[in-house]
Input
Amino acid sequence: MRYVRTAALALLAACGLAAPFAHAQWQALPDKAPEPTDNPTTPEKVALGRMLYLDPRFSSTGTVSCNSCHNVMLGGEDNRPFAMGVHGQMSGRSAPTVWNSAFYSGQFWDGRAASLEEQAKGPVVNAVEMGMKELDGAMNRVRHIEGYRVAFAKAFGPDAMTVDNAAKAVAAYERTLITPNGPFDRFVKGDKSALSEQQQRGMDLFASAGCIACHSGPAFSGPMLPNGMAFLNKFPTFTDNDYVEKYDFLKDLGRFEVTKNDADKHLFKVPTLRNIALTAPYFHNGAVQTLDEAVRVMAKTQLNRDLSDTEAADLVAFLNALTGEFPEQTMPRLPPTPGTTFEFSSAQ
Amino acid sequence: MRYVRTAALALLAACGLAAPFAHAQWQALPDKAPEPTDNPTTPEKVALGRMLYLDPRFSSTGTVSCNSCHNVMLGGEDNRPFAMGVHGQMSGRSAPTVWNSAFYSGQFWDGRAASLEEQAKGPVVNAVEMGMKELDGAMNRVRHIEGYRVAFAKAFGPDAMTVDNAAKAVAAYERTLITPNGPFDRFVKGDKSALSEQQQRGMDLFASAGCIACHSGPAFSGPMLPNGMAFLNKFPTFTDNDYVEKYDFLKDLGRFEVTKNDADKHLFKVPTLRNIALTAPYFHNGAVQTLDEAVRVMAKTQLNRDLSDTEAADLVAFLNALTGEFPEQTMPRLPPTPGTTFEFSSAQ
Output
């Protein structure tokens, strides 16, 4: 873990530089997400993963699925400040988007999960999210559903109904949740009419002001480091401004909450800016309601810069160009439990 | 309302007769649901209605949609005893399935809504379901979403973003949620191999025992009466048995809760048996966990008959033949609120 932090801090130092970047550094989103060698994406895994992702029956109450907080019909999250799980309980952080999460080298706001596979197991047993006591309890529900037995066999072979394979299937599905070919991508590929003049001004400012130092790469979430090394940054970097108190940005200690190393205080994963227009409210605590305010907050807290109204509007226009094309999806039938159901929790 | 009750009671009397029914009375589910003349189904309304149905942003917390409790990826409900709405609050009745609800002449367990259009407005402003204070508050959120403005214009023409039109769109979508061509339907249409011998025995028993007296018609929910007249029945009819106390069937006064007429005590809408295998737990209070137990309860409380194990198994086998074909659906993109979101409720 030491190396993770060191690498992150070295890159963090680089983020302080507001060097202009050549256009060659802009990268369109690939049409396909990277896949780990031990979990190649197959149609059978994707089909199974989509069912599991949308199925609320593996939460304690039977009411919360992955999709409840990471809604693939919306911007891949819930448009709420804090996610709301079983019994109306609230998470301590805002749900990040699932769209393009395949381009991270670490998951969760604090990067504590090394992969999508590992991440998928977290919310199931989080007391305020899906509220199951044990992963195997959730898996036992899956095992009781004949249709899932068939789907696991197709994806992984017989006798393969394990927590790890369920996580692999969900991760494989999530790797299909990418949004290429937005206006920005078409522009980078040569269609100069894809961005308005205002959006192009915003793009230039995004580079010259230094936003791109951290929000780089095809997903605007920094480099993909070796697997398990989330690209982290300190937020807020500059604390001598009104935003920090107004939005209570110092309350959450970020990665420190996991590692208890002082140097990890207020380190957060650099989130993707893909589809950022669809994922208000903003920041790890969802405290900022609009994208206009969010770019002003970022400029001040990370670059110690006050944006003019025009600059803020230009950046917002550019960020709207990062909304991509969403793949059309079929709504799955979730395999049933004919003639019976589970004992779902009613009381908290 | 007097007429509704009288008509229902007259039919109720008929239900007491355990007369055998000729095979000619079996009806396959039509390929198309009936439509009211003032709301013909169009693809534009269906597309809009599907988005509204699946969109959680019109609940107070932004977490509960129609689909949360009437899940179209499952049996059209939530497989819970009582539905769970905003802040983990629970409804006092079990969520009925949305599948084939177009074949009812009245909606809700007590038939208090005359149409799907009227029903659609109920849960939005129910404090423990979607929790909005006023329908117009929900509609104001819809009005703030540009994509919905476009979709309403396509479906209803310009300046048509009203609560009534939203309800019409949802109802139009729900009329597409029908499940024809199940094994029973194929059998009735002439494919004698569509039902097993056990299922055919169950079918004969369903008629000879008298189940079909109330659970008649193409949806096994009784006749479609004039619009707004739900086909009601008394449940439980026979109270001198252990089931009534065990499952607390006398607690809920049914239609009486709406009308306060003594004669309406314990009157409930006769629910469809289509896809009944997918909608455990059973009854208005979701107190019965399995379909096997449900058929024994019904035989005893409605026909004062104790089923043998074989009879119960035959009936369950037959009821499994009422699971139909579910239309493949595309998962809609829900129109966004770029750069901002709504003020969702966090505290109860």
Summary: Chain B touches chain A through 54 residues (CB under 8 Å). The beta strands of chain B are 232-234, 267-269, 329-331. Chain B has two domains: 2-31+179-320, 43-174. The longest strand of chain B covers residues 232-234.
